[in-house]
Predict the structure.
Amino acid sequence: MSRVLDHIHQDHRNMIQLLEILESEVKDLASGSDHDYSVMSDIVDYFNHYPTHFHHPYEDKLFEWIGIENPSLRSLIDELQTEHEAQATLGNEMSMFLQGIRTGHMVPREAVVKDLTEYIRVQRDHIDKEEGRLLKEVENLLEAKRAIEIPLPDRDTLDPLFGDKVDTAFSLIADALER
Ligand SMILES: [Fe+2]
Ligand SMILES: [Fe+2]
């Protein structure tokens, strides 16, 4: 498999791991068991960091290239790019919402569960759509063309959680991931 595909798949696997942790926290919150708002908000903040600033912009450029090579994928690409924009907005809103709760805002538990469940669904659906409907095409095109001149983001230095050094802002979720 190409380096490009490898990189995107790995980013997706990293994100899925975090969504699983978030899902389990939301389940605990819903059932009234012990839950940790810091873990939940750190996960949302992570999504607002590396995926928003590096993973999505890289995909946007890659998908542009795919759209030129294969115009029949254009409407799917437009949809995915619109989702990237919507996710950035949703991510900021979710971050402020959770920050508010951590600093004492009273919000009914059901409302938090509902919003976080929707947040997880949006993230998962997006990854599933890319994995299921576009990346196979990318692989075929890359095999046919071989060269692509879009530099991959350097995860080792740019990713504050899955890179070489864990940023202290994300040490809580690094512990949850046992990194
Ligand atoms: Fe994406
Ligand atoms: Fe993606």
